Amino acid sequence: MKHRTITRFLASLALGVAGAANAATCAPGHPQLVISHAGSLTSSFTPVETLFTQRTGVCVVDLSGGSVKLARQLLKDRGSVDIFASADVEVNDRMLKPAGLATHAIRFAEGAMVLAYTTSSKQAATIAAPAANGAVPKAAPDWSAQLVRAGVSIGGSHPFLDPGGYRADMVFQLAQLQTQAPQLYNELLSHYVIAKPGDTLGKAFDYQLTYEHSARAALAADTTGAYRYASLPDAVNMGASSPRNPYAAAGVTMPGIDGPRSATVRIPATRVTWGLSIVEGAPNRQHAEQFLQLLFSAEGVALRAAGPTPIDPPLASRADIAQLPPSLHKLVRAIPDNPEPIQ
Question: Model-level pTM?
């Protein structure tokens, strides 16, 4: 299958910002911890950070945004961040490790992509199959064909800055594989628009591919009754698990973060998994270890209920576990050689 490269399609677009950075100000000399994390983790990290500060007195500086954008910034600000948590563990493995910014990647949460829309979106009446008793509807069998009809727009973040953006591209690739429609990927891509600050679903664009936990939160917070989302087939939602990666045929290539040593990097499509690392050269490493002990504890897992589904216990490769500080060895389990598929 041949795809028009997203590099060519997006080269003329200005680099948008996925998420915003929010940095607390700590008093000079006050103990602190600097965490750089995906915007999709805000609902998970905020309550844990609050409890951590209450118990330790450590001031947490919280930076959030698109994971790839934050990884690029991490390289520039080497030695100033303690924990990096991304929306895709592949960012840790394929960007941070080669740049010498991390020696390990811990998988600590998982999820899936869904299709969000509103009652005013084009095709809203037919994009999802009927569902009873308040259940989340499944996308209609021809959902991808409906998205490429005239006038329909799909909003999202920039794939070179944010996994949410490049996972939309992966969904397009997987939809073409599933349907065997030879031009579907390019047609879907032509309907994709980079959302600008202030753009909203249902007004600036009709549909959005987003994380399931984010869609649940948006639905619960909606006071208008207009927000909707539909689940996508396992073949495209990147939420299924099997001994062999069922999404391996899809992926994106983008500029690396470390100049000539990684001019480009390919990110393969995998199950949606969030990953974190203690950054090499972390100025507050002891506090970072203490925070992860809380994050991975039963109490921390409970506090993360509003975010992506916690992986409990968190996972890492055997080689990566060997790189972890001793305080985390008993909290992180080795990735099974043959993980059980989701039932």
Answer: 0.91
